[in-house]
């Protein structure tokens, strides 16, 4: 078996485990109205929360918990968290489950005018599963720069502000303490949509990630 695949299985098992001295990750669970394929918050998921919390932390809305396959996403128009359909079929990833909690940064935009996909900035929170629709304060450690069918589709990499891997502050730090994780993440993103759909351009540190974040926040503000 490919060593990277073996590594992914080991990584996924460790991230899903609630042992190893992991403290509870603080989350905000808004007052939700839940239906089978839709979650409505008391405020608009995209518009209702600021991107930044102080100077160094960000808000993240969790769309897809670690290890799951259903591709929930925030509807930019109505602000609900939904499991959309394509040709009458609910969106499900045809691959291994997500290697972290996938979500979006509120009040951000990957601007289509400069090659982005026109959606909020995506982010992957490493760690055990967090509740779908929860709001999590996170610290950015880096970024995976990538193209999805020719469009910019960058993925910020983050950790919860408290409660998990609090000693990790950068991608370099992550790779040194947990060898192979970055390779596993890039392997997953290269293949989760099928062969040849996604191209990994580069791996960046948190300084580059914050630059991309600031550009996405400005793009969102400029469109309003």
TrEMBL record:
Gene3D superfamilies: Inorganic pyrophosphatase (3.90.80.10)
Presence of the UniProt keyword Magnesium in the record: yes
GO biological process per UniProt: phosphate-containing compound metabolic process
SUPFAM superfamilies: Inorganic pyrophosphatase
Source organism, top-level taxon: Bacteria
One GO CC term, this protein: cytoplasm
Pfam family name, one: Pyrophosphatase
GO molecular function: inorganic diphosphate phosphatase activity; magnesium ion binding
Presence of keyword Magnesium: yes
Signal sequence range: none
EC number, UniProt record: 3.6.1.1
PROSITE patterns to which the protein is assigned, alphabetical: PPASE, PROKAR_LIPOPROTEIN
Cofactor(s) for this UniProt protein: Mg(2+)
Keywords attached to this entry: Hydrolase, Magnesium, Metal-binding
Name of the featured protein: inorganic diphosphatase
Species of the source: Aquiflexum gelatinilyticum
């Amino acid at each position: 078996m490919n060593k990277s695949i073996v590594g992914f299985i080991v990584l996924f098992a460790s991230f899903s485990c609630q042992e190893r001295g992991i403290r509870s990750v603080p989350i905000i669970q808004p007052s939700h109205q839940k239906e089978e394929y839709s979650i409505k918050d008391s405020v608009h998921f995209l518009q209702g929360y600021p991107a930044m919390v102080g100077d160094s932390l960000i808000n993240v809305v969790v769309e897809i918990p670690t290890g799951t396959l259903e591709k929930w996403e925030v509807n930019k128009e109505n602000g609900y968290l939904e499991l959309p359909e394509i040709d009458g079929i609910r969106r499900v990833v045809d691959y291994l489950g997500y290697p972290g909690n996938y979500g979006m940064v509120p009040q951000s935009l990957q601007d289509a005018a400069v090659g982005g996909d026109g959606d909020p900035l995506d982010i992957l929170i490493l760690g055990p599963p967090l509740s779908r629709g929860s709001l999590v304060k996170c610290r950015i450690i880096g970024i995976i720069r990538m193209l999805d069918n020719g469009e910019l589709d960058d993925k910020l990499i983050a950790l919860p502000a408290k409660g998990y891997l609090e000693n990790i502050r950068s991608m370099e730090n992550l790779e040194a303490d947990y060898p192979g994780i970055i390779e596993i993440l890039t392997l997953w993103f290269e293949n989760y949509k099928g062969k040849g759909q996604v191209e990994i351009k580069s791996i960046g540190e948190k300084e580059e990630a914050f630059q991309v974040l600031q550009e996405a926040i400005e793009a969102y503000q400029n469109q309003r």
